[in-house]
Amino acid sequence: ARDDVILVETGEEVTQDNTITNVAKGLMKKKPTPGWEFHKPRRSNFYGLKFHVYDTEEEGRMIVWQFGCVYDKTLSQDQAQSFLEKIATLTENYRKDDFYNWRHGDLLAAQESFANILLHHMHEVASKGRLAMVNDKVEHAKEIMAENIAKILERDEKLEQMSEKATKLEEMSHHFKKRAKQVKRWHQWQNAKYGMAVGTAVTAGVAVVAVPPLIALL
Asked: Is the backbone of residue 10 left (phi > 0), alpha (psi -120 to 50) or beta?
């Protein structure tokens, strides 16, 4: 899945009460972490396991790729983890190159191109013995988790920097508004003083013009 969008699914529901489907839904509801997530409902013989790979697009947006499976007691946790690690490795080129289906596609967008490959590896897990699967286990899972942690920290740092910039911009905006009010107040005061000066001149002028006739009439 890409974030919450399921791109490929395969397998079949073998229970009458949709137990496997419910385990899968519960698994997908768990929030992504840098490593593994587990889900096992009470009184269920099925286990849910999920692995995450964090990816950063050029625009800086974070994508979380989720690889999950539901298995029963006939499969060990080591085998299930090995299977998901292989799938994460196999899909690496798809996730990088197939922008239309994998990076921007809607629900089950990659079903046609990858479902048969996924099913083949599921059958391979069932046919191989436990030791064979564990020996074939992809060893760079810890490296992926370390990269996930690094990308999460990098994203958090960028978000913190953006928050600091937003705070500074807000402070600058507040200072600008305060300064604008001061300038506006100063201009209004200057206009008011100019008006007082003009009014006084007009009054004086009127007085000068009006006084002589009054004096003459006396």
From this structure: beta
The order of strands in the sheet holding 46-56 is 36-39, 46-56, 62-72
Which 3 state secondary structure label does DSSP give 17? coil
| DSSP assignments along 48-64, one per residue | EEEEEEEEE-TTS-EEE
Buried b (16+ CB within 10 A) or exposed e, 34-67: beebebeeeebebbbbbbbbbbeeeeeeeebbbb
- DSSP for 148-194 reads HHHHHHHHHHHHHHHHHHHHHHHHHHHHHHHHHHHHHHHHHHHHHHH
User: Strand, coil or helix: what is 37?
Assistant: strand
Query: What is residue 195's predicted lDDT score, i.e. its pLDDT?
Result: 59
**pTM to 2 decimal places:** 0.69
Taking only the tens place, the pLDDT of each residue in 50-76 is 999 999 876 778 899 999 999 998 888
Q: Tens of pLDDT along 131-185? A: 555 555 555 677 888 888 888 888 778 778 777 877 888 878 777 777 777 777 7
Cα 169 vs. chain centroid, distance in angstroms?
Answer: 23
Joined together, the tokens standing for residue 162 give: 């953006």
pLDDT digits (tens, 9 = 90+) for 169-181: 887 877 777 777 7
Q: Measured between alpha carbons, how far is 17 from 23 in angstroms, rounded to an integer?
A: 11
Side-chain-side CA neighbours of 86 within 13 Å: the count stands at: 20
